Amino acid sequence: MRRTTSNLTRVAAATALAAIAASPAFAQELKIGLSAEPSAMDPHFHNLTPNNMLTRQIFDTLAVQDENQQLTPGLAESWKPLDATTWEFKLRKDVKFSNGDPFTANDVIYSYCRAPRVEGSPSSFAVGVRAVQAMTAPDPYTLIIKTATTYPLIPLEASTIAILNAKLIGAGQVEYDRQDCKNAGTYPKTEDFNNGKFAIGTGPYKLAQYTKGDRIVFERNDTYWGPKQPWAKVTLRPITSAGPRVAALLAGDVDFIENVPIQDLARVEANKDYKVVRQLSNRIIYLHFNYLADSPPGVTDTGNGPKNPWRNAKVREAIAKAIDRDAIVARIMGGVAVPAGEALPTQMFGANKDMTPTKADPAAAKKLLAEAGYPNGFSIVIGTPNDRYINDAQIAQAIAQMLNRIGIKTSLEAMTASQFFTKRNKAEFGIWLAGWGADTGEMSNPLKALLATPNKDKGFGTTNPGGYSNPKVDAMLEEALATVDDTKRAALLAAASKLAMADYGFIPLHFEGTTWGMKKTLEYKARVDQYTMPSGIAPVK
Amino acid sequence: MIAFLIRRIGQSALVVIAMATLVFLGVYALGNPIDILIAPDADQFEKEQAIKRLGLDQPVLWQFWAFLKAAAQGDLGKSFVHGVPAVDLIFSRMPATMELAFVALAFSIFVGIPLGVIAGLKPKSLVGRTIMTGSIFGFSLPNFWLGLMLILIFAVWLKILPAGGRGETVEIFGVRWSMFTADGLAHMVLPALTLALYKASLVVRLAYAGTREAVLQDFVRFARAKGLSYRRIVGVHILKTIMIPVVTVIGLELGSMIAFAVVTETVFAWPGMGKLLIDSIYKLDRPVIVAYLMVVVFLFVIINLVVDVLYSLLDPRVRLADQGK
Amino acid sequence: MVALEAKDIAPTPRAEPAVGKAEPRWKRMAAEFGESKLAVGALVMVLLLCLVALLAPWITPQDPYDLSKLSIMDNMLEPGTQSLDGMTFWLGTDDQGRDMLSAIAYGLRMSLFVGITATVIALFVGTAAGVVAAYFGGRVDAIIMRLVDIQLSFPAILIALILLAVLGKGVDKVVIALVSVQWAYYARTIRGSALVERRREYIEAAQCLGLPKSRVIFGHLLPNAFPPLIVVATVQVAHAIALEATLSFLGVGVPITEPSLGLLIANGYSYMLSGKYWISVFPGLVLLFTILVINLVGDHLRDVMNPRLKR
C-alpha cells in the first residue's frame, strides 16, 4: 500500500510538471462531489475534516502534513529545538498573500492569537496553541516559540494552525500573550471569511464563491509560492448521500468524488471511463468497554459471575477471539479495510511493526468465557452509530452474529451519530462500537484519547468514558510525551500500545480504507487522513 | 374585520411561542451538540470552553429566557454548526425551496386541472375512470420512493437528467435563481415532478368534483340550451366555477409543499430549507431548528391569513361563523 | 413488541360491525360496495396483507431479526440463490444476509402495526375530543376546534418530523407522532356530523323527551356519525403507513433493529443505484401496493357511504 502511494506521488508530481508544460490543461475546470460539507470558510472556526481539508487550500500552515501525515515544510522552511523548551522556525521569504501583501512572522503571531479566540466556535484550535507560552520574532522571517515543559509536538501542532493575513484584517505589530495579545485589533467574525472578505491566504487556491449547501468555488492563486496548480477553477459540491454522489460522477456532473460507497466500487471500476483510488486510512474502528459501572448498561444474565464481565481480561480476550475480522473486511467492507491489531497502521509513527490482528477462534473464545466464570455466557447490548463510519451498524450486526455464536446473547442499540456520541460520552453503553482517526498521525494521539486513564488536567482519556486504566501504559505515555528524540519517542509509544493490546484494553477491528472515484484522466495523491484536497488532483498526462 | 385579524394574529403568536418552547426544550433534552461538533481529540478543557462559547453551560431555562429576549428583538441566535445567524442561514436557503415549490405547484395545476375536467365531463368513460384510478395511484406513491425511482430511471439508466443538486443560478433582484437557466431547469425537472405528483392528484380530484357539480348546475344547462359551443362552456363557465375551491386549496397547499420539500430535498440533495432542517436535526443544531420552525410557522400563518381574508371577502358567511363562537 | 392483535386489524376496512338500528343502511352499503370489482379485489388484498403481517412469524422461512440465525456470508445474494445450508432466498438477501422475503413480511407487519395502532388511537382521541366539543359546546368547543384548525393548518409531515426530532427514534414515538397529526381529522369529522345530526328530528325528539345529554350523544349521535369516521380512518391508515415510511426513510422513524418497509427501502437505497435492486425495490413495491389497495378501498367506501364527503 505504501509503495503504491509513493509511486503515486511521483506520478502526480510528474503529471503536475507535464501539465505546466502542456498549457491547454490550464483552462480546465475541475468539479468535485464532496460527501460532507464544511461549516465555514474560516480556517479557525471548526476543527473538523471537511473544514480543514478545504480551508487549507486557501490558507497555509507553518508545517504541512503530507499524504502520509509526515511533516514537511510549509510556510516554515525549517525548524529545530534550540533547547528543551524553545523551538526556532525559519520562515519562507518569497511568500505573498493572494492580495499581494507579503507574508511575515507577524502574520503567524497574529494567527496564533486569533485561533483560540473565535466567537461561537463549536470546536476550536485552542488545543494546538495551548502549549505555546511565548512567541517572538527576532526578525520578520524567524520565529521563536517557548513552552513551559519539554514539548515535542510543537511542529506537529503548527501544522493545524492556518495563517491569516494580519494586515488585511487590521492588526498592527502583534505581541503574543497567552491571556491577551497586544495590537491584535478586533478579531474577525466567521462571516467575514464566508463572504470572502478575509478569506485571503497564501495557499494554492483563492475563494471565489461559497454558497452554503450548494457549492464552493476556488480559483487558482497565481501568486502561490508552491508548484502551479493545473486547474483554473475548482467547483466543490456537497452531495452527502452516497448513491446520488456516484450517480453524479457516472452522469458526468462531477469529475471526482470522495468516499465511493463500497457497494459501488465494482460498478465504477467496471466503467472504462472511471477509476477508483484506494488508500488505507488511519481511522481505526474498535469496540470499547464500560469498566467503571459495577453493572454496565445492557449487560445482563451474568449468572454467578461478576456483574461487570469486562473487568476480567479473559472475557475481553474472548470477545477479541470471537470476531472474524477477515469476514467483516471481506463481506461488509468490500475489501476496502485492513484488519487491525492496534490503534494505528504499522507504517505510522509509534506503531509496532510486528503487530498482527487477533485471529478468530470461537472455540478458544468459548473456553475463555467458561474459565472467566461465564460458562453460559451473558447478554449484552452493543451501542453503535448508524451514520458515522463506513457501514458502522452493519459491522455491529455482524459482530452481534459472531458473539451470539460463542454464547454471548447480543443485541444492538443503533442510533444517529448525535445521539450516540452524547450517550457514549456519558458512558450510557455497556460496550460500544466507534472509530478514531489520529489527526496527528502518530501513536500518542489514540493512546492519550482512548486508553489513558481519564485525567482532566493532563487531557488524558478524553474518549475513554468507560475508564480503562493501566498505570504502566499511563507512565510510558507520559514519558514519551516528554521525549524530544523521535526514535526514542516512537519506541516508547510502541511499547505502551503493545502493553495495552496484550491486556485487550479495547478491541481493534479494522482500519477503514478511503476511496476516491474519478475520471480515468485524473490522478489523486491519496491521503491517509481521508482528506480530499483539490491541490492533490492532477490530470494524467 | 379588524377584530378578526387581531384575534387571528394573537392565536398565531401563541402557536409560534408554544412550538418554540416545545422544540427548544425538546432538542435540549435530546443530546449535547458539542459531542458531535467538537474534534474527537479535544480534551476536557477545550470541551468546556466550547460549551461555554455556545452558551450551553447555562441552565436550560436561563438559555430559554435569553433566547426569548433576543427573539423579541428579531434575533433567533447563531447556528452552533455554522457560526452565523440562523435566520440568515434559512433565508439564504429559502429561494431554492421557493422556486422548487412554485414550479411544482404550477406543474400540478397545469396537469391536474385539465385531467380533472376531462374526467369530470366523462366520468363513466374509460379515460375518466383511468384518470381517477390513476389519481389514487398518485396519492399512494410515497414521495421519497417516487424520487428514488425517477433517479434510477432518468439519471442512472437513461442518463438524460442529473441525479441531484441545483443547477447554475443567475442573480435576479439580488437573489440567485436556478429556474431561469437551462442547466437549472434540467436539475429541477425530477425534484419538481416528485413534489408535484401528490398535489397534481389532489387537483385532479378537486377539478373532477367541481366539474361534476358544475355540469349539473342550471347555468351550464342553460348555456348548453342556448347553443354555446362545448369548448366555450368548458373553457369559461366550468373552469370559472371550479377555480374558487382549487385556488383556495392551492393557497394552503403551498405551505404543505414547502414542508414536503424536506423529503424531496433530501432525496435530490437540493440545497433548500428542508435539507437544512434535516441536517440540523442530525447535528442537533438547535438555533437553526427553532428558527426554521419560527420562520415556517410565520410563513404559514401569513398564507393562512391571506387565504382566510380572501375567503371571508368572497363569502361573508365564513367571517360570521368565526365571530359567532 | 410487534405483537399484532386481531382486534387491531380486523375492524378497519370492514364495515360490518352492527351499530344498532342502522342495520339496513349497512346492508345497502355492502351491496353497493360489492358492485365495484376493483374495490372488492382491493379489499381482499388488504385482508390478505393483514393476514401475512399477522402470521409472519409462522410463515416466513427465517426470523430476520434473530441475529444468531443470520450469516454474514450470505449477504447480498441475488433473488433465487441458495444459501450454504440449502435455503433458497426467493427475493435475495440484504447486506446482513437476511432473507428479503422474510424481512418484507416482518417489515409489512411493522408498517401495518404502526399505521393501524396510530389510527386506532387517534380515532379514540379524536372522537373523544369531538364528542367533548359537541357535548359541552361554547368555550370548550371553541378551544378544541381552534386547536383542530391550527393543527390542520400545518402539514402532517412537518409536525411529525419536529416531534420525532424532539422525541428521538422508536416505534412508540412514531406512534405518538402519528397520533398527534391524525386526531384532529376525527375530531373535526365527529363534530361536523354531530352538528348535522343535532338538527335532525330524532335528536330533537330525544331532547324533548328529556333524555340526558350523554344518552343522546352515545346512543344516537355517535352511531350515526360513525360512517364518515370509517372512511376517514381507512384513508388515514394509508396516510399513516406512508408517513411512517417517509419518516423512517429520513432517519427519524423506527429503529434499524426493527425495520418497517420504509426503513428497508432506505437501507437498500444505496444498493439500488449499484444494481442490487432487490433490497429496495421489493419492499418499495409492497409498500406501494399496500397503500394503493387501502386507498382504493377507502375511496370506494367514501363513494358508497357519502358521495358528498370530499377530502
Architecture overview:
The complex is a heterotrimer of chains A (541), B (325) and C (311). In chain A, 29% of the residues lie in helices and 22% in strands. Chain A has helices spanning 2-21, 49-58, 105-114, 154-158, 166-169, 191-194, 242-250, 265-270, 313-322, 325-332, 362-371, 392-405, 417-425, 444-451, 471-481, 486-502; strands spanning 29-34, 63-65, 71-73, 76-83, 86-91, 132-139, 142-147, 205-211, 215-220, 233-238, 256-258, 274-289, 337-339, 379-385, 409-415, 431-437, 507-519, 522-524, 537-539. Chain B is mainly alpha-helical and 325 residues long. The two termini of chain B are 15 Å apart. Chain C has eleven helices and two strands, in the order αααββαααααααα. Chain C has helices at 6-9, 23-34, 37-59, 100-136, 138-152, 156-167, 171-198, 201-208, 213-250, 261-272, 278-305, and strands at 81-82, 88-89. Chains in contact: A-B, A-C, B-C. The interface between A and B is large, with 57 and 54 residues.
Chain-wise SSE layout:
The complex is a heterotrimer of chains A (541), B (325) and C (311).
Chain A: H1 2-21, E1 29-34, H2 49-58, E2 63-65, E3 71-73, E4 76-83, E5 86-91, H3 105-114, E6 132-139, E7 142-147, H4 154-158, H5 166-169, H6 191-194, E8 205-211, E9 215-220, E10 233-238, H7 242-250, E11 256-258, H8 265-270, E12 274-289, H9 313-322, H10 325-332, E13 337-339, H11 362-371, E14 379-385, H12 392-405, E15 409-415, H13 417-425, E16 431-437, H14 444-451, H15 471-481, H16 486-502, E17 507-519, E18 522-524, E19 537-539
Parallel strand pairs in A: 1-10, 1-11, 14-15, 14-16
Antiparallel strand pairs in A: 2-3, 4-5, 5-7, 6-7, 8-9, 9-10, 11-17, 12-16, 12-17, 13-17, 18-19
Helix pairs in contact in A: 9-11, 14-15, 15-16
Chain B: H1 2-30, H2 34-37, H3 44-53, H4 60-72, H5 86-121, H6 126-140, H7 143-157, E1 170-172, E2 175-177, H8 182-216, H9 218-225, H10 230-268, H11 273-282, H12 286-314, H13 316-324
Antiparallel strand pairs in B: 1-2
Helix pairs in contact in B: 1-12, 5-6, 5-8, 5-10, 5-12, 6-8, 7-8, 7-10, 8-10, 9-10, 10-11, 10-12, 11-12, 12-13
Chain C: H1 6-9, H2 23-34, H3 37-59, E1 81-82, E2 88-89, H4 100-136, H5 138-152, H6 156-167, H7 171-198, H8 201-208, H9 213-250, H10 261-272, H11 278-305
Antiparallel strand pairs in C: 1-2
Helix pairs in contact in C: 2-11, 3-4, 3-11, 4-5, 4-7, 4-9, 4-10, 4-11, 5-7, 6-7, 7-9, 9-10, 9-11, 10-11
